[in-house]
Amino acid sequence: MSGHGTPRPLISRKASPLRGEALVPGDKSISHRSLILGALAVGETRVTGLLEGEDVLATADAMRAFGAGVTHEGDTWVIQGVGVGGFAEPEAVIDCGNAGTGVRLIMGTMATTAITATFTGDASLRSRPMGRVTDPLALFGAASYGRDGERLPMTVVGAKDPVAIRYTLPMPSAQVKSAVLLAGLNAPGETVVIEPEATRDHTERMLRGFGAHVTVEDSAEGRVITLTGYPELKPQVIAVPRDPSSAAFPVCAALIVEGSDILVPNIGLNPTRAGLFETLREMGADLTYENTREEGGEPVADLRAKFSPDMKGIKVPPDRAASMIDEYPILSVVAAFAQGRTVMRGVKELRVKESDRIDAMAQGLRAAGVTVEEGPDWWEVEGRGPDGVPGGCRAEARLDHRIAMSFACLGMATKEPVTVDDAGPIATSFPLFQDLMSGLGAQFELASE
Ligand code: S3P
Question: Which homologous superfamily does the CATH classification assign to the domain defined by 28-227?
């Protein structure tokens, strides 16, 4: 699972008008959480719509290594949970591949059980900071020993006598929040997480769904989330909604490819995730919500996206960043085809994702003829209008699925093709991306190298 083997370059040429329906895969965040909470319930959890991408499959393997049963019967994933505190000590190193969500949530989950586990991942994951998770886990009583202090490979020694904690998030991170809440499951009393900026709330929602006692209050300090330890989690039947972060790619491609009109059905529009769509509409995108409804307590709609030649650059409100944090790379592509400047501030977290996403996008966009300015926690893209981006460049994916997909979409509307140096990472979150986009009208070619 560590690394993606031989690079697979992808050439993206000017697309035909995009037409049809884009059935994007299941939500990555909800898929990881379904497997982990299923593993902590007592009995059999059944999950449909699970994202069968490499990141989530690594979490499924990890749950098996900690003693849960994970199998699939056709499209239904069946998880035999071991109960809160029931994790066994794994016999081998846990390889989480490219998945920050996987490794951070699993570390949290095992940190309050008296077992030891060693984690690793691919070159991208091994370079990412883990101190943000191991700092609060140390307060529970867990110890960690990582390369360079806070990098994988890392061994976590779970607390024998965990104590519940009260923790204010130093950065807006749903992964850190979730790691603390999952650790709190096996600690006595109340674990409290305070988040000054709201981040995606799938863990809180799903914990409640499994029967844990979780309260959320707004206070002057931010959202205060309180979890009562030692719940008996009851197995669930879960239908994972389609991923808004994956929907972003066909939606944005349709906005920039002349003549496009596509439907992207069944997209979860949880307000902690839907910031991109709001931003695109403010830019003047022809993006509408059809058949708006509620499913499993989450707002859901079918998205219709049409070619939008009159988009304008905007200042994206920094307080919206958490609700669209994974969407800035593809937003920067749309911004290149708008008129005027798009300003993105308060986005320091982009520098510690699967790659430094500001640097990765800035370099590729500049090579494609777009002016980009950047600072430690901001960047700005100067739009060149709907038919104004030259392209004709090679862009680096840097082991980052969202960077690879963003550049593939860029080439769909540039004058000259864009080559993505490695399409391999796309399989972490969107295994059928090339097929789905080609079915709509993309002109992709996998080059041999
Ligand atoms: C995720 C949280 C975000 C996001 C990631 C998925 C999650 O990361 O970028 O793709 O499922 O909790 P951070 O918590 O580091 O912001």
Answer: Enolpyruvate transferase domain (3.65.10.10)
